[in-house]
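Category: protein sequence paired with discrete backbone structure
Discipline: computational structural biology
Format: plain text, a pair of labelled lines
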Amino acid sequence: MIQRTTFALIVLCASLLAGDLCASEKHYRHIMFRESPYAAYRGIHPIDVATSQAVQHYEFAYDPAGRLTRVSQKLGDKRIAAHGTWDSFIWFAPEVRIEYTDNQEVHTYYGLDGAQIEAHGKVWRAVYSLDKQGQRRALAFYDRAGEPVESEWQVQRYEWRVAKDGQIFERRFNLSGELAKLRPELEFYEVKLEYDFDGKLMFMRNYGLNHELTNNETGAAIDRITYDLAGNFVRWQVYNKEGMPVEGNRPMVHMGEHLYDAFGNKIGLRGFDRFGNPMTFSWGDFMQRTWYNAHGVRSALQVIQADGSIDLHLTYQYTEDLSAQIGVTSIDANGALKNDPRLNGAAQVKFQLNEQGVRVPLFFAADGSPMKR
């Protein structure tokens, strides 16, 4: 379904190349959530070129046929690191470039300096296999030497087939040919991906190891995804194979909510049990709040506990051009430096360039004394 939507857009663009609809580049503050690489990259919160010069965004580039050839995360004309922005599980580098042949779509990854890099582990090339209609049917990862390689999620190959209702079944395999989890922390094996008329993922159902709707060890079999009208991923809900609400999967809540500002920046995260009561996530956070500067770059993060107390308050420091993070600071409710175990017991981390030009962390206690890592 999602590929048919993409094909329709390509045909439309090919017929309107002279107009604004098919400009060679488009800019978006964010990309739409993707749970699977089956879905195409898609921008949300469109902005004009003038605005893109002042805010963190994604630049989409197209060839004369309207096919996507590059997606870059930028501020102005410079590639920029994510700096804590989270839009999707499927975004691994500052830039992705895409090339096409008759039956393949090849993705490669690039760093801040424009040089090709390994991404998502040791992945050098990601190669989609396309059917005669140009729809994605498989994806395989390869290293620098051209040999098959697993991603960070222990996946070497994805396979997709069309279900009787037109939706998509997905299976993933490791280098040994064994069926792999969706992600290491999410025990869904074969899954059914169900998209709406607009190509947004609505449901993901776990068909386990034997093509049967299956509860995982947390009692979860179904994830439901909800979006607002801007395309923001605002809510997930967890159900068992009978369709009853459960608290499950890694967060161990029934419902998680993302809260956004008017620009699509995620400013809050909170969870609820099956009865609608607020509850703490499995990792100990009751609620998160995030702040951004005028350029859309994360400036501060708070973790709040159920009693309203602030468990963690971090502020982030960057280079003047915002291209690199140079520090993170932990403070208490009064703004004083506070040692925190999540910073290896430090109150400040400063990133400095070593002789190889790589930024390395240096740790400092609240009293300003240096600490060993």
About this structure: The two ends are 49 Å apart (CA to CA). Residues 1-165 form one domain.
